[in-house]
Every structure is written in C-alpha cells, then in structure tokens.
Amino acid sequence: MRSLLVFGVSAAFLFAGAASILAQDKPTDPQIAHIAYTAGEIDIEAAKLALDKAENQSVKDFAQSMLTDHQAVNEQALKLVKKLGVTPEDNPTSQSLVSAAGKTRDALSKLEGAAFDKAYIESEVAYHQQVNDALEDLLIPSAQNGELKSLLETGLKLFQGHQQHAEHVAAELK
Which CATH number fits domain 2-173: 3.40.50.1450, 1.20.1260.10, 3.90.320.10, 1.10.3860.10? Predict the structure, then answer.
C-alpha cells in the first residue's frame, strides 16, 4: 500500500511538470534543447538511484538501459547544440521538471525492496508517457531547426520503446 501511495505522489509531481510543458507557449529551440536535455538528466539520475536500490533483476536491467540510452542521447544533444552554436536556455518548464523529479526522487529514496522496484517502474511508465506526449504535441512541432527536430524525433522513437519496456517490467511485478 505504501508503494502505491508513493507512486501516486510521484505521479502527481510528474503530472505537474508535464502540465507545465504542455501549457507553455511555443518554446524556442534553445528552450527545447534545455527541456530535452533536462528530461534526459532526470531519467539518468532516476536510473542511478534504481541501480543502487533495486532488487529485481528486470528492474535493474531496465535502469541500466535508461542510464546508457539517456546518456547517449544527451551526448548527441550536446554535440548538436555545440555544432549549431545554440546555448540551451533554462525556462519554467525545465525548472518544473527538476522540481518534480526531486520530489519523486525523495519519495523513492524512502522505499526499499519490492516497494521501491514497483514505485520506480510505475514512475518510469508515467514519466515516459508524459515526455513522449510533450515531444509529440509540443517540442517536435515547435522545433525550428531541422537537425534539432530530427534528434527529437529519433529520441521519441527510443523513448516510446522505453515506455513499452517499463510497462512490460511493471506487468511482471504485479
């Protein structure tokens, strides 16, 4: 029961962050770059926590793939912004994501064992759904630079796979 309560709290924090993304007026390319990079960093930190605390091997494997994939995408993003001479711009959406992720991380860090595993995977399902929706509905359509748009589209395909993977692991844990 405690894991469901924590998940509910975590999901509420993440939904607040996603609502900020979707409510934002059309973001600029520097803002989009910052939002995308921030979203990746959030999942990298969550994966590190899961690698430290998870007990279930499927959860650990999922966390390792999140760490590897999000680090690779963020490296590509950094190369692209350097190539384009763009300075990512902090913005209310990025700040909201960081704040929500901190609250989720705090809630998850208080859990152990199967309760942690279940809450982490459930938060990953919700997080990827929200990020994927934001990519599809706002970030990709708002991107002006073709290379940035292409990177976001590639990221969306990868992150949709992450969501499916997380849903599969969540189903295993029930």
Answer: 1.20.1260.10
